[in-house]
Structure formats: C-alpha cells, structure tokens
Amino acid sequence: MQKIKIISKLACKQYFNPFLLILLAGFFFISSCSVLKKTDKKESKVNERNMIEYKNAFIEAEKQKMLDNLPEAKALLLRCIELNPSADASYYELANIHTFQDDFLAAEKYAEIAAGLDPDNIWYQMLLGSLYHTNNKTDKAIIINKQLIKKYPDNTDLYFELAELYTVNRQNSDAINVYEKIEKIFGISEQLILEKQKLCQDMGKPDKAIAEIEKLVMTYPDEPRFYGILAEFYTAGKQYSKALEMYKKLLEFDQENGMAHLSLADYYRQTKNYDQWFSELKIAFASQDVSVETKVNILSSVFAFTGNSTEFNEKGYVLMNILLETHPKDIRAHALYSDYLLRNNQISEARDELRFILGQEKKSYAVWEQLFLVETELNDNKALYDESKEAMDYFPGQPTVFLFNGMAAYFLKKYEEAVKTLTAGLDLIVDNDKLKLQFFINLGETYNKLKKYRESDDSFDKLLTIEPDNVSVLNNYAYYLSLRGDSLSKAEKMAEKCTVLQPKSSSYLDTYAWVLYKMGNLSKAKTYLEKAIENNGSSNPLIIEHYGDILFKSGEIEKAIVEWNKATKLGEGSEFLKEKVKTGKLIE
C-alpha cells in the first residue's frame, strides 16, 4: 500500500512542540483566516451569525488537531460543514485526519468533495490522487495526475508519480514514455535510466534494458559503479566478451577494488573458468571492501558446492584462512570455520572456535548448544559440566541447558546434583514431549544409581506413557527390575516387547532371557540366551556370563564354568564374575 503524504500543515503530530503552541496558534489563525476569507467570497448565502460560528469552529478544530485531539477536531469540522456546506477547507482537513488514522475510504470521500468544490487547488487534487492510489483506484489517480501535470508542467514529482501509477497498473510502456518525457525536459539521471531498465527487463526486453545501462555508462564515464552494473547485465545475457571488457575498465579505476574482483569472480564462475574464479575470490576475500557477511555467504555456498571434491574443499579452506586473516575477530568468520571443522570431523579444533566465539559473545544460545554437543562427542564431561553451568546463568529459562548439565553431573557421579538440576529443567518445559523424554530417561537412570527405585520407576513410567515403544527404556527398565527381583511380570512384558520390536538385538534378547531366569523359567531363558549369542552376542562378556549362570542353575555346572572363563577373557562382566571363576559356584 502506498504511503500517503498528508498535505495539511497541521496533520503530522510528530512536528508538534507544546512550547510553540502560542506561536503556532497565531500562525493557524492567519492561515485559517485566509481560507475563511476565500470561503466568504464563495458562500454569500451563509448568514453572518453562522459565518462567525463557522470561523471560530474551524480555528478551534485546527487547534485541537495540533493538540492531537483528533475526535474533537473531527466533531468541530463536521460542525463547520453543517454551518457552511461549501467549506472546502473543512472537507480537506477531515480527509487529512482520516488519512492520518488510516481510514482511507472515508478520507477519499471527503477529499473528493473538497476537490470538487475547488478543482484548482493543487493540494486537494494531490491528496485525492494519493488516496485513489492507496485505495487501488489507479485509473482515477492517473487521470488526476495527468491533469495536474498540464497545470504544473515543471513539477518533476508529478511525472514520477504518474510513472509509478502506470507501473502499478502494469502499463509499462506508458511508464517508460513518462520517464523519457522527464529525460527530455529535465535531462538524463541515474534514477531515470535504472527505472526504465527495470521496466524493460520486466517486459522481457533485455536488449533495451542493456541499452539503457549503456546510455548510463556513456553519460557518466567516470563512475566505475555503472561499468559493474553493465558487466553484470552482459554476463546475464551471455555476452561474456563485453562483460569482461567492462570488468577490466572497472578495475582501471581501482585495481584493489574488492567488489570489482568479486564481480569478476562471479563472471568466471558463470563461464566455468574455476582457476580464474578462485584467483579473483582470493583478492576479494583479502579486501576490506567486501563485507564479512558477503564473504561468509559465498564461502557457505562454496562448501555446499564442494561435495566430495577434494580440490574444491581445499580451495574453500584457503579462502577460509584468508577470511580469518582479514577479519581475525569477527565471530561470523569463526562460526563458519567451526562448521567447516565439524564437517571434516575435526571436533577438538571446532571446540576451540566455538569457545572463541563465546569469548566474544555470550548470548548466542545456538553456539552454546553446539559446544555442548561437541563436548558430548569428545566425552569431556568435566568441560560439559563447567560450561553448561556457566550457560545456566545466561539462559535460566532454557531447559536444554539444564539437561546437558544434569547429564554431565550424572557421568561425573554427582547424582544428587544431577537430580536437582534435571528436576529444575523439567519444570521449565512447555508442550515439548520429546524434550521431556530426555529428562525422564536421565532422571530414571540417576534415581536408579541413588537406589531411589520408586522415583526411578516413576520416571520411566512417565516416559513410557509418552512413548510406549521406546525400546531402550523398556530394555533398561526391565533389566533394573530383574536385578531387584521386583515386578518381574511387568519386566517380562517389557523385555518381551523389546524382542518383538527388535528381534535380532543381542542386548534385548539377553535382557528377556535374564528376566525369565529370574522368574525361574530356565528352559525358555536358555533358548533366548542362545539366540542372543547367535546374534553377535558371543563377544559380550556379560551375555556369556549370563549364559553360564543359566547353565549352572540348569545343572550343567562344567559347561557353566567354561562360559564364565570365556567371559573373563572377553572383558569385564558383573562384579561377581571373578569369584564365580575362582570358586566354581554361582554367586548372585
């Protein structure tokens, strides 16, 4: 929607200064009187008493408008119209007030009456034309504008307004004709040529668009910027030799012009001359003329384009180093470098970059979270604990910070602190079940470590209410219950569900077998333990130890001892494994 220009001297409240009230009141009295005198001549039928009241009401309306009391001003102006129906100034001021209040249809109604009462008033006509434009009545706006141009042929604003109206009305040829008329009367200007060029482009006439830019270069031969614009048009039109000529002329003005080298690089990219493209980009990246944002965007595209290409990846790395050398303290450059390092699995180096960024700017949560993920990848729980604790000061309402800190505390065996942090973070979550799952998992595991089994079970139960098929939780929960010999029927159902959901998981088969073992169902337990061993469980010491336990309970003592010895060689089993091997007896 077009922004309306309020023509009235009183309409713009931002100009009001209360200390100038007396001075302005005097000014408005003089200007209002001039309007009222004109109205006197036009309205001989208004009796003298009404005219006095009308004049007083009009002056008071202007005063109230200046005080930003628009409802009162409107009421007074309506009274003016009642007293003097031919008072064009009153209609005009009402139109201005409604325009100011964005009530453009009402404004149009009053502006039409004012313009009808005084067709020769340019301000009335201009306001009406603007309102027609705003209310999408461009045909009417065009008629008014053409009439005004006839009366005021030296007013350039009117020509530009008419051209804009034609453009809005998709009458591009008419708009171009108006711009050419402006050019004949007032001379060539950059604004005119660029407007014509854009219209020609929109009309699908690229040759005419180029011709306009060529005219711009001929008119302003000492302006290097225009050579760059023309070169871009030549490149878009695949007139590559002409484009190269323009770029060379551009660089004659300033050999170190970073933007010129950047444009030339784009030219070489489009012509697939990648060696020259790279050479020009290196110059552009070393220049302070080109913004960091532009360089980062280009380099992001380069990295996206490289794919598995070693050559382009190396070129990107060279440009990355130039970027960092040219802008050593810019966090956007370091953020891009950290992404590059992560993509190339240089996790530790990426952490250094993320820490550098946070040294400059603490309030970017996305950077903190990326750092937490890196610390998790590096298994550096001490760093994760310390950094997430610091981040909690900056983001006290961000639950994921509490999650990372609680996880780190768990791995550092600070179980009580982990519970406190995780509980506080859980209370911050609103309508995010996926995030709640992460908290419930960690709370369940932490409470289990603290032997607070009721709270642990409660956390797992809440999680399974949200996601009943979470096999990892079903498996762990069932195993913990079996170790305690608690709710074994519930544990059996959960463990069996895991084997249905993932029938070839040695870990889940082992858990189910262990629950069956605890329930005394040795035959079925042995069957599932053997399935676990067949499904890549033969190298797992705990699974082999469990198999030995089942064999022992089944009376196959010698075979059990063989399995326990095998488990010892594979690695670390339960805390009782060595004693079982030493004594040849089952210890639980």
Could you outline the blueprint of secondary structure elements for this entry?
Blueprint: H1 21-42, H2 48-66, H3 70-83, H4 88-100, H5 104-117, H6 122-134, H7 138-151, H8 156-168, H9 172-186, H10 190-202, H11 206-219, H12 224-236, H13 240-253, H14 258-270, H15 274-285, H16 292-306, H17 310-326, H18 331-343, H19 347-360, H20 365-377, H21 381-394, H22 399-411, H23 415-426, H24 433-449, H25 453-466, H26 471-484, H27 488-501, H28 506-518, H29 522-537, H30 541-553, H31 557-570, H32 577-583
Helix pairs in contact: 1-2, 2-3, 3-4, 4-5, 5-6, 6-7, 7-8, 8-9, 9-10, 10-11, 11-12, 12-13, 13-14, 14-15, 15-17, 16-17, 16-18, 17-18, 18-19, 19-20, 20-21, 21-22, 22-23, 22-24, 23-24, 24-25, 26-27, 26-28, 27-28, 28-29, 29-30, 30-31, 31-32
Largest sheet: number of strands, sense, barrel closure = none
Identify the CATH homologous superfamily of the domain at 1-128: Tetratricopeptide repeat domain
Give the amount of beta strand, in percent. under 5%
> CATH top level of the domain at 1-128?
Mainly Alpha
Helix-strand makeup class: mainly alpha
CATH topology term of the domain at 1-128: Serine Threonine Protein Phosphatase 5, Tetratricopeptide repeat
The gyration radius over C-alpha positions equals: 41 Å
Overall mean pLDDT: 86
The low-confidence runs, each spanning 5 or more residues with pLDDT under 50, are: 1-44
Oligomer: single chain
How many distinct beta strands? 0
Q: What fraction, in percent, of the residue positions are helical? A: over 70%
Shape: elongated
* H/I helix tally: 32
Give the N-terminus to C-terminus distance in angstroms.
80 Å
CATH architecture designation of the domain at 1-128 = Alpha Horseshoe
